[in-house]
Structures are given as C-alpha cells and as structure tokens.
Amino acid sequence: MRSFPALALSVLALSLCACADLSMGKRGKMVVLEDFAEGRITSVVITDRLTGAKELLFISMPQKSNFLEGYIMGVVTDYEDNPIQGVVVRAVAEGEEKFVEKSQAAFQTSSFDAGVSDSNGIYRLRFSLPILKNKVDVRGKLVYNPGWEQERDNLGKAYAPQMKESPFRLYFNQKAGQLVFAEGVRKTVVQPVEGKKVPKQKELPGAKAPEAEKPAVKGEDDLLKSFFGGP
User: Fold this and answer.
1) At residue 211, what are phi and psi to the nearest 5 degrees?
2) Which range of residues forms the domain containing residue 72?
3) 23 lies in some domain
4) How would residue 101 be classed by pLDDT, with cut points 50, 70 and 90?
C-alpha cells in the first residue's frame, strides 16, 4: 500500500500536468500563477530569442530578450450555435493597421498569426510578444473574417461576421505571474420570439435572424419550364 506522502506527491504531479498547458514554462518553471484570462489564453510559455548584438571592446556578444508566447482561443458559431469551420480571425496590435493591407488579411503580422476555425468552430491565434521591464501590455483589436465581402464577390458566397471587430488588451506581469485578457464591449444579438397571444399586447420591435436559403427541389426547374412553355 502506498504511503500518504507518496500518494500526495502523485496527486500533485497529476495536478501540475493538468495545468501544464497554461502555466508551465520552457524549463518547467511556473509562468502563470493567477489566470484572469478565463480560458482565452492557452499554452503560455516564456522563451528567449536572439534580438541583436552587444559590443564589448573588440568582442561582439549576442543579446537575447524574453518573449511571452501562447495562443488566443475563441469559438465561431452561427445563430443556432452550430460550429462554423473555415472562418479567419486576426489580432492586430495598435499601430500595425497602417502596415497591413486588406489583401494580406489572412497573413500573420509582426506579433500575431492569423487563426482559422476548425470543425468544432475553435480558432487559435498564436502570439509572440516581447517582455519589457517584466511586463507585457498590448492593446489592439480582433478582426473577424476580414475580406468576407471580397470573398462573396469572387466566390458568390462567404460568412458575414455578426461583429466585424472587437478591442482587446493582453496584460502579463512576470513578477506576479498574473495574466489578463480583456475584450471590450461585446455586442449581443437578440431576436423577438412569439408565445401565447395576450390581449392588447404589442409586438416586440426588432428583426429576426435571417432564414437559411432552402435547397432547390429536384425537377422544379423542369416543371417551371414546361408551365411557361420553355424549351
């Protein structure tokens, strides 16, 4: 029979493995101690990168900087909460908009990679952000399916986003191990529904969700052609 300390250590090891996706660094060091991102940020690690060289007398020494890396996660669905695949989501930091053209909407920027929703509607945007004075503080916006109008015009169909973009802020304090992801004011779409009729009750204002186009019935075109005398 296992002793209690050994059992406790096993449980602790399993607990650490369970949260490793979020809070374990490259060398096993805890990166995130307090997570205020509510599951929006995952696989967080701190890496060091060669960012230049430092000249010391006649010697050139490589200079490295720490970067916070991970993924921003989200879900894309339709009005009936069904997951939608193939929708592009981008994150653009403040000051980068002027360097990104609309034709390059699906390509990565200097700090963020574009994400595409999978069969479960889940998208993951990889980021790599420099840690300056033990902190990361980035503001920007999430852009949902940019260029959908061009896709509609070229292919005849596209997913029009309910909300085109939303502001965000990603904050990390390395000393305190605090991670925060805040996404600005979110727009919620509702539609009026009817229940039991009540006398003298006014109808709710507002438009309902657009109905999906019904597929053409087989043989319908031939029936119409014969009715109108077509060939």
Assistant:
1) -80, 145
2) 37-51+62-183
3) no
4) very low
| Rounded Cα distance, 38 and 55, in Å | 44
Query: 82: Cβ–Cβ under 8 A, 6 or more apart, which residues?
Result: 121
In sequence order, what DSSP letters do the residues of 114-131 get, joined into one string? -EE--TTSEEEEEEEEE-
Q: Give residue 140's Cα distance to chain centre.
A: 13
pLDDT at 225 over 50: yes
Domains of the chain: total:
1
In a domain, 192, yes or no: no
**Residue from 32, 39, 71 nearest 173 by CA:** 32
User: Which tokens belong to 231?
Assistant: 């060939």
Total-model pTM? 0.68
pLDDT tens for 36-95 read: 998 899 999 999 887 666 777 677 777 778 899 999 999 999 888 899 999 999 999 886
Q: Region of 230 please: left (phi>0), alpha (psi -120 to 50) or beta.
A: beta
Instruction: Count CA atoms closer than 13 A to 59's CA, side-chain side.
Output: 4
| Three-state secondary structure readout of 138-162 | EEEEEEECCCHHHHHHHHCCCCCCC
Burial of 177 (0-12, 13-18, 19+ CB in 10 A): middle
d(CA 182, CA 133): 21
